[in-house]
Amino acid sequence: GHGFSSTTAPLLKCKSQLFVCFADPDWASCTLGVFLCQSCSDIHRNISQISKVKSILLAPWSDVEVEFMLSNGNDAAKAKYEQKVPAFYYRPTPTDCLLLREQWIRARYERKEFVCVERQEPYSSGYREGFLWKRGRDKGQFLSRKFILSERDGALKYFNKHDAREPKALMKIHTLNASFQPEKIGQPHGLQITYLKNNSTRNIFVYHEDGKEMVDWFNAIRAARFHYLQVAFPGAYDTDLVPKLTRNYIKEGYMEKTGPKHTEGFKRRWFTLDDRRLMYFKDPLDAYARGEVFIGSKENSYTVLPGLTPSTQGYHWQYGITIVTPDRKFLFTCETEEEQRDWMAAFQGVVNRPMLPQEYAVEAHFKHKP
Q1: Residue 3: pLDDT over 50
Q2: Which run of H or E residues covers position 70?
Q3: What's the pLDDT tens digit per position in 286-309?
Q4: For the segment 125-176, what is each residue's pLDDT rounded down to a tens digit?
Q5: Domains in the chain, start-ordered, CATH in brackets?
Q6: Is the distance from CB of 144 to CB of 133 less than 8 angstroms?
Q7: CA 257, CA 280: separation in Å to the nearest integer?
Q8: Cα–Cα distance, 370 to 362 (Å, whole number)
Q9: Helix orientation angle between 98-105 and 38-45, rounded to the nearest 10 degrees
Q10: What's the rounded Cα separation, in Å, for the pair 370 and 367?
C-alpha cells in the first residue's frame, strides 16, 4: 500500500547489499548509481546536470533504472570516481561543515578530480598563491590579502600591501594548522589558520567566496604538511602521518576562570582545547590567546576534578572544574551541568593519554613561561 512498484523490491535488496554510506539511505542517484543519505541527497540536487536524485520508496522506478542501480552501487562508484585520491586529501565525515562535504561530492562527480590527476594541480604542486579575505585584528573587518604557500620555503606567508616585498607574517609549515569554523567566523567558507610564534598560538581567520578555492587552500596546506612530515619521519606509513596533517579542536566554548592566587573575581573567557593546549581568549576571534595551559597525562601528576575548593569565591556559574598540574591548580566554572560534563570528558581524554617524547619539550617550555 505504499504506492511503489514491484520493481523497487530488488532495489531495496540491492540497497542492503551494496550500501556503504553514512546512514540508512532513503535516496538514490539514478544517474550515478549510488545510494544516498538525506544530507548527501541535498548536495546531489545542486548538481542536477550530473546527478538525478530519487526517493527509493516513493518515486516510480523503471526497470532500466533498477537494472542500472543493481549493476553499479556505491562500491562501483568508489572504484570509478576515487581512483587517485591523494593520501593527504581530506575526506569529510558526516559531522563536517557543508562546504567540505559539498566540495568532496563535486570533486568526485562533477570535476572528476580523482580520475584526472592534472586536475589536482591547485593543491598538489607544492606552491599556491592567491587572494583571501582576512579578518583585520583591530576593527574586525575582512580585508583582501595576498597569500603564498611554498613547500620550498617551508612556509605560508601573507602580505598587507599587494606590492609588498616582505610578508606581514611567515607561518612555518611544521606548526601550521587549519580548521573550518563557519559558525564562529560568521562565513560559510570561514577557515581558521593557527601557527606558533615564539611558541605561542596565533590565529588568523580567512575566507574566499568561491568554495572550491577555499577547499583547495585547505588541501594545499595538508599537502605541504604531508610532504614536510614525510621528510621529518622517513619510513613512517602514510596512515600514521595523515591524522597529523590538520586537526579540529577537541572542544571550544565559554567558561569562567580566575587568576593564579584564586582571589581575583572569575572572568568569562572563550576556551579552545587544541591537543594538549588549553587556550583562553577574551573574544573567540582574537588573534592571540590571553593565556595557555599545558595539560599533561595522569602519569605526570595531571588530574581533573569536578567542583572547586570550598573556600573559592567570586564566581557566577555554579558548575566548577579544577585542573591540577604539577605546579598549580586551575579553577574554571561552567554555565550548565551539561557543559561541565562535556569539558570534564574532554580534559579526562587528554589526561588519560600517555605523553609523547616531543610533548615533554612543550611542557618544559610552559614551565619556563613567566
Answers
A1: no
A2: helix 63-71
A3: 999 999 999 999 999 999 999 998
A4: 999 999 999 999 777 899 999 999 999 999 999 999 878 889 999 999 999 9
A5: 8-110 (1.10.220.150), 126-241 (2.30.29.30), 251-368 (2.30.29.30)
A6: yes
A7: 9
A8: 15
A9: 60
A10: 8
